[in-house]
Predict the structure.
Amino acid sequence: MTLTPDIRTETAYDEMEALSVGALWRHLDNLFPGEPPARAVPFHWSYRALRPYMMHFADALSIEDAQRRVLMLVNPGMRDTSATVTGLYAGIQIILPGEQAQAHRHSANAFRYIIEGSGAYTTVSGERVHMNPGDLLLTPGWHWHDHYHEGEGPMTWLDGLDFPLVNSLDTAFFELYSDAAQKASVPDDLSSLQFIHGRLNPTWIGERTDASPIGNYPWAETERAFSAIAEHASGSEVDGISLEYTNPWTGGPVMPTMSCRVQRLVPGFHGVPRRHTAATILHVVRGEGRTVVNDQEFAWGEKDVLVVPSWASYRHVNDSMTDDAVLFAYSNEPVVKALGLYRDELV
Ligand code: 1HN
């Protein structure tokens, strides 16, 4: 007996496709993999290899034409979204003396981790925030921001954004500001001056935002923390002396979608391997070392960038017996945790 004499299995799949219908039994393995599939691949970008291209375009392309002069670090497994790893993006931006990068805002959260040079500032919601190597500057979603370089020599920094996540949720908005630059409306570096002391929050500020109100977490503070901790803690056996930049209102990550950390790997550090479901981007602040991701070994040097996808095992090694290695790391851990999807294990 047949219930529907007009339907034949041989042609049914095509007919259903024309109706925008799929057969779950043919897709179960794809849709419900036993463990996270490797869409983002482990990858390493050498700063030394990128720098000539940055310098070339600093010469060949005006800031007005580019709006932002940035080399995107695109994961070979995620070319369709320009993501560096799941949910996250990294790029290297270069700005020359006298250049003004047009003011704009977007719903994506952003930060900059300063690599080379000094004398530039970014204006975020009317506050000029000055940049020096090793500083972490925040531009939370929908804050107007523009950059100006009043110093000498090129400046470069790592841009971190969550736009791959924002785009995947169809929540991307973008607007140009009416002028190239915002006018300063508060004293320079005000938010850092008011908040950076950590456990002393200004009581007169009413609005407690889920993104940190701090414009700049300066390298000088990071260095103070590392030297105060010195050898009094051995840190994490996986990540070394790993410190998280925090939102002073919550004690949590600096922005709702991205956790930013800085980690010191002492001379001779051999990390224990681990994997977790947060995707991570690492930038080498100083030193040299290697990271083994799954079965692949990546040797890294100063200013390089490296990605560890979700559920890839990783272990860090600092082979030097005399010098520290310092890594800046950011991840989508707050998103993964907020959704109850975080898992980790030593492997
Ligand atoms: C952006 O606004 C900046 O403000 C840098 O410097 C990189 C990448 C994608 C979208 C917006 C910046 C960006 C970006």
In short: DSSP finds eight helices and 22 strands in the chain. The CA atoms of residues 68 and 101 lie 6 Å apart.
